[in-house]
Amino acid sequence: MTTARRPLWPSRSDACWLFFAAFAFSGMNALFFALGDRTTGALGPAAGLVLQVVCDFSLVLLFRFPVQVCAFVTAVAFGMLASDVFAPGLLVPLHPLALLTVPTITPVILSQAARVLDRRTVLWVAGILAVVASRPWTPDWAVTPFGLLSTALPALVSLYFEARRQLLQSLRDRAERAEREQHLLAEQARAEERRRLAGEMHDVVTHRLSLMVLHAGALGVTSAEPAVRTAAEDIRREGAQALDELRDLVGVLRNGTEVGGAR
C-alpha cells in the first residue's frame, strides 16, 4: 500500500465532518444494539457493539493513518466473517438488524479513503470488502446487493469525484502557468522595445545633440559679438543639460527603472 497524497491532518471542516460521522454511526449502532439481539459468545453481549464503535471512531484517524485504518476495518470485516462461519454469535448477533455484514462505517471509510489514498489501493480495499460484504459463495437477495452498494458504490463514486477534482485543479494550474508565461513574455517584449529605443536615442539623438553643444561652444569662443557669445553659451548650457537628461532617460529605458531611481 502507498502513502497518503494529502496533508496528514484534515482541515477543520473535514475534522468536524469525520467526528460527526463517527458519532452518528456510533449512535446508529447503539440503536441497533438496543433494539436487536445481543452477541452470545464468550466475549459478552456487547462485543459486537464495542467492535462497531471502535471502527466508527477509527474514522477520525483516517487522514492521519489511512492505510492503517483501512487495514483495521478490513481485518474487522474478516473477523465478522469468521464469526459467522466458525463461531456464530461471537462478534455478530445471530439475527442482526443491519443487513451490512461488514462494519457499518465502511461506506464512509471507503468514500474518504479515496481522498487520501491512491486509486489502486482504494480499489483493492473496496474489492476485498465488497467480496466480504456480498458473500457471493452464499448469495442472498437481501445481503449481496446491499453489500455491493455499501462498498463498491461509495468507493467508485468517490474515486470519480476525486479524479474530477484533480483534473480541474490541473486545468487551473495550467491556466495560471500560461498566464504567468504570457505576462513574462510581455515583459520581455517591453524590455526589448525599451532597449531598442534606448539604442536609437543613444546612437542618433544623443550624437546630434552632442554636435549641437559642441558647435554652440565653438561659436561662443570664436564670435566677436557679445550677444552672439551670450546666446551661444545659453544654447551650449541648455544643450548640455538636455544631453545629461537624455543620457539618464537612455539609462532608464535600458534598465527598466523609474526616472527617479535612475538619477
Short descriptors:
mainly alpha; 2 domains; 263 residues; disordered N terminus
List the helices and strands and how they pair.
Elements: H1 12-35, H2 47-58, H3 66-86, H4 106-116, H5 119-134, H6 144-222, H7 226-255, H8 259-262
Helix pairs in contact: 1-2, 3-4, 3-5, 4-5, 4-6, 5-6, 6-7
Written overview of the protein:
The protein is mainly alpha-helical. It has two domains: 12-139, no CATH class; 180-262. The chain has helices at 12-35, 47-58, 66-86, 106-116, 119-134, 144-222, 226-255, 259-262. The chain is rod-shaped and about 130 Å long. The two termini are 64 Å apart.
Offer a quick outline of the entry.
This protein is mostly helical and 263 residues long. The protein has 8 helices and no strands.
Structural class: mainly alpha
Give the count of helical stretches. Answer: 8
Mean pLDDT, rounded to whole units?
Answer: 83
* CA-based gyration radius: 40 Å
- Please give the number of β-strands: 0
- Helix percent band: over 70%
Work out the strand percent. Answer: under 5%
Profile the largest sheet: none
Q: Outline, from the CA principal axes?
A: rod-shaped
End-to-end span in angstroms?
A: 64 Å
Query: What order do the helices and strands follow?
Result: HHHHHHHH
Low-confidence stretches: 1-5, 258-263
When the domains are counted, the total is 2
